[in-house]
Each structure stands twice: as structure tokens, then as C-alpha cells.
Design a protein that fits this description.
Layout lengths: L2 H17 L6 E5 L5 H9 L4 E4 L2 H14 L4 E4 L8 H7 L2 E5 L2 H14 L4 E6 L12 H13 L5 E6 L7 H15 L3 E3 L6 H6 L4 E4 L1 H4 L7
Parallel strand pairs: 1-2, 1-8, 2-3, 3-4, 4-5, 5-6, 6-7
Helix pairs in contact: 4-5, 6-7
Pyridoxal-5'-phosphate binds next to strand 8 and helix 9.
Family: Belongs to the pyridoxal phosphate-binding protein YggS/PROSC family.
Protein name: Pyridoxal phosphate homeostasis protein
Keywords: Pyridoxal phosphate
Length: 220
């Protein structure tokens, strides 16, 4: 059996265990940097939800895979530039990285134009790191409200990537608090190193790449 398929099964088991009596978190298999050939066995093993962090890379790989597996659900988990909004709306089913006014506006325009309504998450820069994307925690609740009231967008939940050097638990709790304050109940948090912790702190979806596909050749 392909190694990624064994690892997929192990991750699924761990997610089920971490859930306890709760509904299990959705597994977003992060396939960035892996080509279609590497993704195929994971599709054949039944995985349908995938995450990519670049619009161009997703457009190069997924249309062909979707011909064979029309029920793929593709998530954008990397930063979005407003000049890529049209392509993002066309190719993604979920956009997890709405983090500023300009993007909210560009997505609203494209969704109206294309008649497509990808589900949306607001990304929060939970550790307030200067180099990281995401809206500041202090502005997150108001931003969710503006997405709805000004741009007519339905926001499904919040997403975050805690600082690599910190204990993730307190950051996950803070994201859950912000979601509650914003009236949202979906939380995209947790990656290969901390998805079980994230589930214990309320994650409803986890984004897991290297624990399934193996270490990526270069950090992305
Ligand atoms: C790459 C990436 C992941 C997956 O990371 P792993 O550590 O390989 O599981 C999750 N979320 C985002 C936003 C990413 O860019």
C-alpha cells in the first residue's frame, strides 16, 4: 500500500479518537507541493477534501483530478491577492483566508459575477506576527460583521495558524472565543504537529499535510 494511504488511515483514526463523543473534525488533506500522481492514491482511498495554498498550483492540478472525482472539495488555505479573486472563486469550494476589506470586496464582486458561492472563513493572525497574514484579533469580530453587512458575504468560521514556537492550545482557545463573539461555530485550526490538540480545543476542521503526504521538499 502507498505510504500516504497508510498515513491517511492513521490520521483518520487519530481524528476519530480525539473527537470522543463529538462529531469528528473534517480532515482537509493539504496537498500543496505534491503533484497529481501523489494525490491520486489518497483520492482513491476515499479522501475528498483537499487544501492548497496557491491559486495557480491548484488550477494546474485539480481540474484534471476533478474530471475523475467530481465531488472533490477544494480549500484555499494560503494568502489571496485581490487580482486572483476571480480565479479563486472559480476553482475553490472554500476560501479560508479572507483577511481584509479589499479581499472581501473583490470576492463579493466575483461571486456575483460568476454566480458561485464558495464558503468563506476569516483568517485571524492569532499570534499577531508581523510576517503572517490574517486580520488582527482585536479587529476580527468587527471584520466578520462588515463582511456580512457591507459586502453581503456569509462567513462560516475562523481560521488560524498559531506561532510555530508557542504552545498552540491558548491560541486555539482565543480563536474559539473570537468565533463565539462573532456568532460563528466553525473553527479551522490544527496542522500535522498539533491537530489532536486543536480538536481538543474545538477545531471543526484540521488542515493536515506532511503527516499524510510526507515531508515536503522545501518549506512553503
Ligand atoms: C502547509 C499548511 C498546512 C499543513 O501543514 P503540515 O504541517 O504539513 O500539516 C496547514 N495550513 C496551512 C495554512 C498551510 O499553509
Amino acid at each position: 500500500m502507498t505510504e500516504s494511504v497508510e498515513q491517511l488511515a492513521a490520521v483518520r483514526d487519530a481524528i476519530a479518537r480525539a473527537a470522543g463523543s463529538q462529531p469528528p473534525a473534517t480532515l482537509v488533506a493539504v496537498s500543496k507541493t505534491y503533484d497529481a500522481e501523489a494525490i491520486l492514491p489518497v483520492l482513491e482511498a476515499g479522501q475528498r477534501v483537499f487544501g492548497e495554498n496557491r491559486v495557480q498550483e491548484a488550477m494546474a492540478k485539480f481540474p484534471a483530478l476533478r474530471e475523475r472525482f467530481p465531488d472533490i472539495e477544494l480549500h484555499l488555505i494560503g494568502p489571496l491577492q485581490s487580482n486572483k479573486a476571480a480565479e479563486a472563486v472559480a476553482v475553490f469550494d472554500v476560501i479560508e483566508t479572507v483577511d481584509r476589506e479589499k479581499i472581501a470586496k473583490a470576492l463579493a464582486v466575483e461571486m456575483a459575477k460568476q454566480g458561485r458561492t464558495p464558503r468563506l472563513y476569516v483568517q485571524v493572525n492569532i499570534g499577531e506576527e508581523p510576517q503572517k497574514a490574517g486580520i488582527a484579533p482585536a479587529e476580527a469580530v468587527a471584520f466578520v460583521a462588515r463582511c456580512r453587512d457591507v459586502h453581503g458575504l456569509t462567513i462560516e468560521g475562523l481560521m488560524c495558524i498559531p506561532p510555530a514556537e508557542d504552545e498552540p492550545g491558548p491560541h486555539f482557545d482565543r480563536l474559539a472565543d473570537l468565533a463565539r463573539a462573532a456568532g460563528l461555530d466553525r473553527l479551522s485550526m490544527g496542522m500535522s504537529g498539533d491537530y489532536e490538540t486543536a480538536i481538543a480545543h474545538g477545531a471543526t476542521s484540521v488542515r493536515v499535510g506532511s503527516a499524510i503526504f510526507g515531508a515536503r521538499p522545501k518549506p512553503v
